[in-house]
Design a protein that fits this description.
Order of helices and strands: HEHEEEEHEE
CATH class of the largest domain: Mainly Beta
Number of strands: 7
Helix content: 25-40%
Strand content: 25-35%
Organism: Cochliobolus carbonum (strain 26-R-13)
Number of helices: 3
Protein name: Integrase zinc-binding domain-containing protein
Number of domains: 3
Structural class: alpha+beta
CATH architecture of the largest domain: Roll
CATH topology of the largest domain: SH3 type barrels
Length: 141
């Protein structure tokens, strides 16, 4: 009877370990990142402190921090090493589920005027026409 009890206990321990490992695998598959990044990509990182700190002083803060550059990519493991745009590396790794790709905003008319791509021509006291400048006179910053 003691032998039977020991066998049942061993079987229960084995079954529990197997079920737990299967549950961990299912959870990891569900949380696997849908997006992978390469070295040199610009990314934004979710501000986890904002999620914890619900005070009104942080209410209007940005939810995403960055942009940062991917320094070392490990998409198979789901983590990345990041650096700021000055090349200073982060002290720890960042999980892929806390990151999203940084999308550059399209140039605005004001940016194009400042860079010399567009020129303003006054038509009347209250109306200004904006036209492209020839390629030879455009300066890049």
């Amino acid at each position: 009877q003691l032998q039977f009890r020991r066998e049942m206990l061993d079987e229960a321990v084995h079954r529990t370990r197997r079920l737990r490992s299967e549950a961990v695998e299912r959870k990891n598959e569900k949380k696997s990142p849908t997006q992978s990044f390469r070295e040199g990509d610009l990314v934004l990182v979710w501000d986890a402190i904002k999620q914890i700190d619900m005070s009104s002083s942080r209410k209007l803060d940005d939810r995403w921090l960055g942009p940062y550059r991917v320094r070392d990519a490990r998409p198979d493991k789901g983590y990345y090493r990041l650096e700021d745009l000055n090349g200073v590396p982060f002290p720890s790794t960042t999980r892929a589920d806390r990151m999203k790709a940084f999308q550059k905003m399209p140039s605005t008319t004001a940016d194009n005027i400042l860079k010399g791509r567009l020129k303003m021509y006054p038509i009347s006291d209250s109306l200004i026409m904006v036209r492209p400048v020839s390629r030879e006179t455009i300066r890049e910053d």
